[in-house]
Amino acid sequence: MEQFYQLGWTLDSAGGASGEAYMAEQDGQKLFLKRNSNPFIAALSAEGIVPKLVWTKRIETGEVVTAQHWKNGRELTFDEMYEQRVANLLKKIHSSKTLLNMLKRMEMNPITPDILLNKINASLSREVLTHHVIRKALTYLEDHMPCLDPRFFTVVHGDVNHNNWLLSDHDELFLVDWEGAMIADPAIDLGMLLYNYVPENKWPQWLRDYGTKDSIDLQKRMKWYTVVQSIGMVQWYEEQKRYKDMNMWLKFLNEVMNNNVFI
């Protein structure tokens, strides 16, 4: 990013796991810069799902840098995650034909349950497999794999953690960090959001706000995908040697496994 320093910009890290995001400032103008950002960002900007895209440039290293309006704000709290505006924005994303067509033009193939399960099985270390709840969860996944026509798949964010929901000082809500975007069953997003943030007795109302009905089929799919993603989180934290977080996800996984959805 030396090029931007030479042009008089002040750059500060904007955090994030990749270390490739910056807050850039010059003459009072603030931008959010990101290296190697997903090209999907332009479509998301046009739909108002992320802060407005200002420009895209290829720099001397060959990397592509995107610049978006900098939004002063904060991430959502746990309690705010079951507000209606969260349900509304997620529904807008899942219903967008523009976003779906964009991913298809990028030649992205649908991610089916068997693909997810194969990826998980291939990624697990011997250490993670020593945990009883992991082995139990893998058996559950094999025995209860959802069957859904990929023609009904939508754009899925894949990481609806509250840290990725930005509420601006002007009360604008955005969903950011789209590196894991895919074409898949929207229950992937719904399950992780509901299990993590919404009291179970409020699931039917939240799903009505989202625009769908609670059903046994939907609950089964949400549980299945939440189990898959939770195992992935256990593996990721084990690799990072963040054992406290790993144990937290093992506990969460065990709670999900014990959730009774008539299976």
From TrEMBL:
Residues 14-221 form the Aminoglycoside phosphotransferase domain. One of its GO terms (molecular function) is transferase activity. Transmembrane segments: none annotated. The keyword Transferase applies. It comes from the Bacteria. Keywords: Transferase. This is Phosphotransferase.
